[in-house]
Design goal:
Elements (H helix, E strand, L loop, with lengths): L4 E8 L2 H16 L5 E9 L5 E4 L9 H15 L1 H6 L3 H15 L8 H4 L5 E8 L3 H7 L5 E7 L1 H23 L1
Helix pairs in contact: 2-7, 4-7
């Protein structure tokens, strides 16, 4: 792949604003302003449980597409979150490897800062040349952050998710 990828995160106090920014992000991409590799809306309940929403995205639940899209974004944002979702079971080992290699680089972002209980976040993975535009597109967010991603990690995670995606679909459909 060889791209320089960036994780762009916007934090929101309410899910409506997050969903609206997510839709703006998608339509901005559709109008040719930039390209988004993957994006999700994360909603964290007051109880600390996190739900992943892919607003307006038909790929949810369709095997590899879903696993490689939402899963990679969540995993790059916060490895522990991915491990806590249905997908995480099969790829814990990969996350462990990635996390070890990244402890010195501080992998992911501080979930409690950017996705505190009772808040939402839009998380996008983009080519670094689009990072500014994408960050600006998240106009309703309280705070935002951009963070370089190791493209090796991205590839490893993507492959692991594609391999485990079939199991995920079985779990989801069972």
């Amino acid at each position: 792949m060889g791209k320089n990828l960036v994780l762009v995160v916007g934090s929101y106090d309410d899910v409506t604003s997050a969903a609206e920014d997510y839709d703006d992000l998608r339509s901005g991409q559709d109008s040719g302003g930039y390209e988004v590799v993957g994006a999700v809306v994360l909603v964290r309940g007051k109880d600390g449980k996190v739900q992943v929403h892919e607003h307006g995205d038909k790929s949810v639940g369709h095997g590899a597409a879903w696993g490689a899209g939402a899963g990679v974004v969540v995993g790059l944002f916060a490895p522990p979150l991915l491990a806590a979702t249905a997908i995480g079971a099969g790829i814990g080992a990969v996350l462990g490897k990635i996390k070890k290699s990244n402890d010195e680089k501080k992998f992911g972002v501080d979930v409690d800062e950017y996705l505190a209980p009772g808040t939402s976040a839009v998380v996008a993975v983009v080519d670094d040349k689009w990072a500014d535009k994408v960050e600006k597109a998240l106009t309703r967010s309280e705070k935002r952050i951009s963070k370089a991603i190791d493209s090796d990690d991205y590839e490893k995670l993507r492959k692991a998710l594609e391999q485990s995606a079939d199991d995920v679909v079985e779990q989801i459909n069972s």
